[in-house]
Amino acid sequence: MVRLLEAGDAGLVVEYGDKVDPELHGRVLALYYRLAERALPGIRELVPTYRSLLVEYDPLVIGYQQLVETIEPLTAGPPRPCSGRLMEVPVCYGGERGPDLEEVAALCRLPVQEVIARHAAPTYLVYMLGFSPGFPYLGGLDPSLQVPRLARPRLQVPAGSVAIAGPQAGIYPQSTPGGWRIIGYTRLALFDPGSDAPFLLQAGDSVRFVPVKEGEHAHA
Amino acid sequence: MHTLEVISPGLLTTVQDLGRRGYRRFGLPRCGAADAFSLQVANLLVGNSQDAAGLECTATGPALRLLRPALLGCVGAGLPYLNGELLPGRASFHGRAGDFLEIRPAPPGLRAYLAVSGGIDVPVVMGSRSTCLRAGFGGYQGRPLRAGDVLACGPRRSGRPARAPAREADETGPLRVILGPQDDRFTREGLATLLDAEYRVTAECDRMGCRLQGPPIAHRGPADIVSDGVPEGSIQVPAGGLPIIMLCDGQPTGGYAKPAVVISADLGRVAQLAPLATVAFRAVGREEARAAREAQQRYLAHLADMLQASTGYRSFHVRVQGRSYQVTVEELP
Hints:
heterodimer; A: alpha+beta; Gyrase A, domain 2; Cyclophilin; 2 domains; seven-stranded mixed sheet; four-stranded antiparallel sheet; 4 helices; 13 strands; 19% helix; elongated; B: alpha+beta; nine-stranded mixed sheet; six-stranded antiparallel sheet; globular
């Protein structure tokens, strides 16, 4: 059941449900692509999330009723589960830049090598970007690796930290405070404001983690 | 051309225009002026286009030395002192090379906007000159101004000092909100609390958000939601029940339920909330929100017309294939 919800006078939320689910997310993305292709005047931002699409608009250019009439027929239709892009992210696990790896292994009652293998095995889905510019919320973590957030979040998580929390995996693009458990790091830049394509990832992309040793960290 | 030298930076002074558009889906906030309307007025007063970059000053503004003549204008919660002499706010004035300009606080508001003829000339990054403090890019080297920084401005256009007319009275009273998108996640009493109670702004009040203190707002069931989009002006209510109003540097997605969103015409007023200020909310419909936005646009259009009548250039709004453009035509001597 799709719900159209007002979010102020310049925002409309198209809500597909209230859970984290690839099929539901695929329907959010499908609407996102349909609207992005139409490039309607007055639409300023489209923000896809786990379960909804936020449409931000200029109410002096496109009225609410007109927006609703445009969007409603587009909410049905087949889901579009992914963008088709697969990004490989080289990760150096453990050590100083993966300070929580051993604790995660203890919490999961697994050897460290097994934690690495299980973290690097799946193909993850980028559900959305948020928290900080370019931060990907990744779904698809092996359920045996689910650990709670840190009781005391760190004031500084270094840029490039590869982290997990609950059913989610992520990568910190900038140095920010954060409460996820850091198991490794990547040198891949997720956000480069000076580049023509400033963001490495977008919602709908697939991500795989590739373990590398300290010395052989790729200059990707 | 080098125009301003920073003698002292003030509490938090950044280069801001109207912000970045189209990157919120990547987790990048709009950035830009927190009180965009005040920056637009300041720009018009000095003959700039409304979206030129100016300085956003927070509480105590900067002390600046002028390195060449310029037309300047200060709008919002700041008072301009030129060589020690107080000049009127909401007005533009001439400065000469060597002049000393200070922006002092003007409570009860929090932020002042200083526009300079030609606009602050910093590199355009991702479509904007605004400073993104969270990711450290844009504006002047991605950071707040420091003593010794030298700011360039674009070429100066002809223009005379002018004063902006007073605004009609929608600048006071409760902040206007539209209920939703998660008003159904709160009890009836919780929503009544939000709309009836008076809140006080805490010291945790920055460009990301403004935390309020007051009676807690009761959720119906669990407080957190699976993350969804967070428009500017969203009122987020975490489990503790105390609201946070999100501003221009707020993250675009979040997992706190939102009982209401402040209407776009009142976002500038949110940006002017200083610690200890009192806040109340009033629910309105789309029609009232639209009327308020139209009134703001009329004010800006009226100001632009008024200033054109006294200067040598004219600007036109042109619509081509559904897009709006602002075209400025200037008579050359």
